[in-house]
Amino acid sequence: MAKAKAKKTPAAGVVEKKLISVADAVITAADRAKDPTLLIPVRSLANVNFNEKRGIIEMGKRKQERTFFNVGMAKKFMQTVLVADALSELQRAELTTSLREIYYRTKHTMKGSNENTFDNQNESDPLIEDLEVSLSALREELHVRAENAGSIVGPVVFGDDGDRVDCARLGKGGYSVPSIVEPDFIEIRRCTADFVLLVEKGTQWNRLSEDKFWRRYNCVLLTGNGQPPRGVRRLARRLHEEYKIPVYVLVDNDPWGYYIYSVVKQGSINLAFESERMAIPKAKFIGLSSADPDRYGLPRNVGIKLNDKDIGRARELLKYRWLQKKPWQDEIKRMLASGLKYELDALANKDFRYLTKTYLPRKLKEEDWLD
Amino acid sequence: MPAALAKPPTPEPKAAPSAAEMGARQREISVSEFFTKNRHLLGFDNPRKALLTCVKEAVDNALDAAEEAGILPEVVITLEVAASGEEAPVAASQATRFRVTVIDNGPGIVRQQIPPIFAKLLYGSKFHRLRMSRGQQGIGISAAGMYAQLTTGKPVQITSSTGPRAATHYFEVQIDTKKNEPRIFESKKIDWHHPRGTQVTLEIEGRYQKGRASVDEFLEQVAIANPHVTLVYNTPEGETRKYPRTIQELPPPPREIKPHPYGIEFGVLLRMLHDTRSHSVSGFLAADFSRVSPAVAVEICRTAKLSPDARPRNVHGDAAEALYKAIQATKIMAPPSNCISPIGEKAILHGLYKQIKGEFYTAVTRPAAVYRGNPFVIEAGLAFGKAPDQAAPAPADAPVVPLAEGEERDDDSELARVIRYANRVPLLYQQSACATFKAALETAWRNYGVAQSRGALPAGPMVIFVHMGSVWVPFTSESKEAIADYDEIRKEIKLALQECGRRLGMFLRRRERAKSEFRRRNIFELYIEEVVEACGRLKGGKLPKEKLKIQLQKIALKRTGGTRTDAILGRDNGPEGLPHSIIVTPDGPEGDAPALPELEPAAAAPAVEPPRPGKAKPAPAQGRAAARGKAKGKPARPAKAARSVKPARPARASKPKAKAPKRGKR
Predict the structure, then answer these.
(1) Taking CB atoms and an 8 Å limit, are A115 and B526 in contact across chains?
(2) CB nearest to A111's CB, from B401, B529, B534
(3) pLDDT (mean) for A147-165
(4) Contact B347/B654 with Cβ under 8 angstroms?
(5) Which residues of A touch B520 (CB under 8 A)?
(6) Which span out of A265-274, A327-336, B596-605 was modeled with the highest average pLDDT?
(7) For chain B, what is the mean pLDDT?
(8) How far is B575 from chain A, CA to nearest CA, in Å?
């Protein structure tokens, strides 16, 4: 991916200062003959709170110390400083880049050894998130973008780098959602849709797009190909907020599907500090519900047996504070009781266009969704 | 099959032979004929293995004979490519015919015994007695001769002399396969330059190939388990390898024992009852078995409801069976173990140390145990690690290639090697069928800090040595390739390996502790460099980098034990001062103090070895201390090493243990 010039945002200078503060922490500690330490908020279930009033997950106050002179943490500490350095280089050069490029930029063999600073990208990715949270800088502000992993089609018009993008005239392929969709980068010029339908799977999004479902029901079709990336979530949120239209989520009937919905609605545990901008507390779960196989007469043989991992994950979900409402507890327990999960694709068992012709119309008509 | 048992004639007269005709076809099969057809049973399945088996049988006989006569064995093995017909001589690796010559300094063989020993199957001195020896059945060398006869048609050539003043006899013999009797081609007196000993020459079809299960490997392993033997090996490629003796005294001669009552089968009991010279059953029991006292004999008779005074010859049928059961039901002391001569911990250490380069050696001799009434001793040893000269080359002369993603530096991915012995003879084939191998797999090496995947040998630069000494080693086949898997045997092997493993674990942990301190410092030094550079860039180049670096290094030194680590690692002792070669004696980890710069240890240690093992160990210790002195070690170190090593090592070497029972008997 070519490096695109990032727009100079007012935050730029501030972010650079935040990154330099990492170096300052080292220098100050060294001056005082102390072990250099970075404080990094804990990104786990234990350190998130569910704000019931706002309906979103918020990050708690717990922080962990990352110290330099500790065998277990030394390398991570060193790597964090290297990543901070690479990020500040981006700021100065006004470039945006990908996670992978950051990894390559910071990877080298340490002088006088045969050890690499990084062995694979899994080591550098979490450090960027660490810096995001500890410096409370958004990823876009750090000039790091994710892959364009989402598509949109429907009656909505964007302005992107001065180009007019009319998503009603982009055939069945739609528009590829950029990873940064902040107003500075993407402008929503017009949206006449009645609702947004966020589909977990690309295959089902293709089915709906091909059948022009969006034209018939006047909606925006959005997909994130699995766990929706930030760009997709943020765009859904903007459409929801700026045009006051509801968001419906269509996912597989399995614990991972439930969690995708919960991330869209309340925010993710890992990046709880982003919920503020990302979460859509009013998003509705339209399907696939564990009640649907019965209601829509799906045969048992198109189900898939829950494996141990699925069951474990479902039990965890049952404990999440934001899934304590009775309908949700019933929903998950029903799945566990049946011992089966269903993919959206299983609807094709009845008819290739069952999703477009029968399932979704009936759902919308009966307003059969979970909140 | 008796004729009477043949099928009655069937209606078709043509196809079916009559009982008389069938009876006429029955005839005796000689053992020799049987083995001619079934040579794989004796280890002559393929040319490569056949060459090894011939060398093995000849060497076994040479060592057994010399040891029994109380002579420190010296054996010369020569392999030559034999030209077959007109063909031009070929390279050893291509040749198909070899001449195997084995010369020993043993007692020699008296003239009239030479033909039957080398040309009569199942003729020997070892089968009928219960005593630990390499050979057991009297098949080996004559089978090798038979193989020679079968593949090249050449007779076995034997030269033997029983002493400097006795005549030297030269024989050429073959085996008459029908009669299982020797056929003498040549018999004369000759002049021989050896004062005493035997020389055997066999010309056989074979293949010489190095590597696993080769003659080379076999002789190397013989040298490990028999440090009292001097071996000279002339390879077919014209090279001469010497394996000098490192222990100047013979293992205590094993004593012959009578069978233990638990170990005999019913049929054997019947035969013994018939053959005995005793006049009463109780007398027979007490006289012909080991560990049966007159009181125990009477008790057995009472259990069997038999009169102790009954004549043994009259005991048969139900009475004999009752007697057999009564024996099994009576509690009888375990057989004496002085019929076994273990190699001994010290000798195993020597053998391993001499042949295998490593950092750590240990050896364990278990007390004698019993399976099926046969006493046996398990010994295990371990050589671990790489000698400094084998270890990865210094980073200075080898440029370090940076690793790409997914690449790993391959270290220690090799699996351990198991070397197996039965009565001091290396076992090279059928490893996976062997009780020793199974026990090595079952041992939980991970507990001792060695990686091991499920169902595999432990990983790492490691040689596992297992020896079983017994009056009767239960092999899985006549070719003596694997030890049968008796529970008692496997259990003993595991116990021995576990002890070795524990010591290895201690060694590894100790070394790891020192190393990790060092690593901590080392990684901090590396990372400080990186962090300082990154901070410099973050600050836009406006940073006094040197100052920050020094500050951080100070903190690092303070946090990681500083100079103490240097001391643990022996770094102040020179750049190569890491303690690389360590022998832990059975006394335990106390003995692991000496740091041994590997200065020709294999040659140096034996050279200064005093002949008496009673005060054995000081020699290597001194040798090494001296060697270290040369290496400019701090004066304090050799002193310390000597202090801890000297008393530790000799104290326990197998000697006193092995001797004790003998002395008691005399």
Answers:
(1) yes
(2) B529
(3) 89
(4) yes
(5) 71
(6) A327-336
(7) 76
(8) 17
Cα of A22 to nearest chain B Cα, Å: 8
| Residue partners of A36: CB distance under 8 A and separation at least 6 | A25, A26, A29, A30, A67, A68, A69, A77, B531, B552
Does the complex come out with an ipTM higher than 0.90?
Answer: no
Question: Which pLDDT value is given to residue B658?
Answer: 37
Spell out which residues of chain B touch residue A114, defining contact as CB-CB under 8 Å: 395, 400-403, 409
Does the distance separating the beta carbons of B554 and A33 come in below 8 Å?
A: yes
Contact A114 B409 (CB under 8 A): yes
Q: Which residues of B touch A36 (CB under 8 A)?
A: 531, 552
What's the domain range around A133?
A: 11-35+70-145
**Same structural domain for residues A162 and A210?**
yes
A104 is catalytic: yes
Is B352 strand, coil or helix? helix
Say if residue A206 is in the same domain as residue A92.
no
Residues A294 and A155 in one domain: yes
- DSSP code per residue over B423-490: TTEEE-S-GGGSHHHHHHHHS-GGGGT--B-TTSPBBSSEEEEEEEEESS--BSSTT--SB---HHHH
Give the domain CATH number at A192: 3.40.1360.10
CB contact under 8 A, A75 and B523: yes
Say whether both A225 and A267 belong to one domain.
yes
Q: Is residue A141 part of a domain?
A: yes
Chain A residue nearest residue B520, CA to CA:
A71
Contacts of B285 (CB under 8 A, 6+ apart): B261, B292, B296, B297, B300, B301, B327
Rounded-to-integer distance, Cα B359 and Cα B582, Å: 5
Buried b / exposed e along B22-55 (16+ C-beta atoms within 10 A): eeeeeeeebebeebbeebeebbbeebebbbbbbb
Nearest CA in chain B to A35: B555
What domains sit in chain B, N to C, each tagged with a CATH number?
A: 33-243 (3.30.565.10), 261-329 (1.10.8.50), 341-392+412-592 (3.30.230.10)
